[in-house]
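request received
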Amino acid sequence: MEINYIQAVRDIFSKREAPPLCCVHSYGCQQNVSDGEKLKGQLCLMGCGVTDDMTAADIIILNTCAVRENAELKVYGNIGELKRLKEQKPDMLIAVGGCMGQEPKTAEKIKKSYRHVDIVFGTFAAKELPRLIYEALTQRTFIVDTAERNTECFEDIPAVRSEKYKAGVSIMYGCNNFCSYCIVPYVRGRERSRSPEKIIEEIKRLVSDGCKEIMLLGQNVNSYGRGLEEKIDFPELLRRIDNIDGDFRVRFMSPHPKDATKEFFDVIAESKKICRSVHLPLQSGSDRILKAMNRRYTAEQYMDMVEYARKVMPGLSISTDIIVGFPNETYEDFKQTLDIVKAVKYDNIFSFIYSKRTGTKAAEIIDHTSEEDKGKWFRELLAVQREISEEHYKRFLGAEFDVLFDGTYKEEFISGKSGEFIITLVKGSPELIGTMRKVRVTKTHNWAVEGELV
Ligand code: SAH
Ligand code: SF4
Ligand code: F3S
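response:
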């Protein structure tokens, strides 16, 4: 007979004096954060309360990221710190899940060196959490689930969201692109899309609940729809979402430049609710490196795409990801990246020094570029971008932004993001947090703008 693990765990917990508290800590990208909210959702179904305080928790889940080595080192540091907590509270459960959990080497290492961890599970096992908790509670042995379940979406699970006014909505899972440096396709499996009905239903529910900003999530959102029975692609999904009634705006993360069609930009340009900001990960401006990265576009194609996007949306704000120091990159290659950065004038760049990921194609390359050079180029890129932002943000002086406030900055500022995805600061009271307000820009920096409420 199939066990109802949610009920089984509830029964165990109901014998305790008070319901146990769980703490789910997510690392990495928005999609992982969104998965973490569903891990919390499952724990609530099992009868747990939620806390952000690890020292108060009876169940801790580290929902990890494997994209770069320093992301992994951070996680191991945090796992190490939990040892003392477990000594004080031997009954607590510690689980390591997410993208690192999916890599078989993680469970091996944890089993050997971090004996206070009870469960290791991968991204494919996210829905299996009730069973894993049940097994850990009843068997008190080290539980591992890294099995590949490539077809599943993490679907039909109530999310416990940390904010009411903005939400991430996964539209697809996995990645088929196999950029040669990237671990994501190995830890997240093949692309699979959620049905448009489920996505739209979820967005309608969020909007009627007061949500003002929806971030559509996927490793490559413009592969959306491939493999679904119904013939639908990302531009069509955007159109349908734009037609949903209500007072909210839409973003998405991330499109892959190779799949960014003219139609895709046209739909954004014609829409009422989609923010005029796109994240277009360049990675490198050198065709030689782009080819070695398996990105499947050239610098020229990328620039044509930017030109078209700005033609149909003159004020469009563009951000990007850049990797510095891919194996055997030369200064000549790097200079071509700088050329594109200067030509596009990004509003924001997220730059990373290449990190070798075992199992990927790029990890097999013998790299002759020194770490010292990579560091030097990285700092050069940051300096160039600082100057560009400094100049470029001045175009916003006097502009009116729609800002969704979400936090504070220093003592006197309330901060939020504009539709252009620009950090905007105003002097005001914390009651602004969670509201969308018009702000006139009065001062610009190279990382944010300041303004006043209109
Ligand atoms: N699917 C998204 C990227 C997810 S990973 C996309 O294609 O845009 C986020 C970013 O991390 C990537 O854009 C890349 O710039 C960076 N990244 C991925 N693997 C990396 C590695 N091995 N070393 C350094 N940066 C990496
Ligand atoms: Fe990684 Fe490339 Fe897939 Fe993005 S598109 S997740 S960089 S393999
Ligand atoms: Fe990291 Fe996994 Fe996201 S590797 S970037 S958390 S998909």
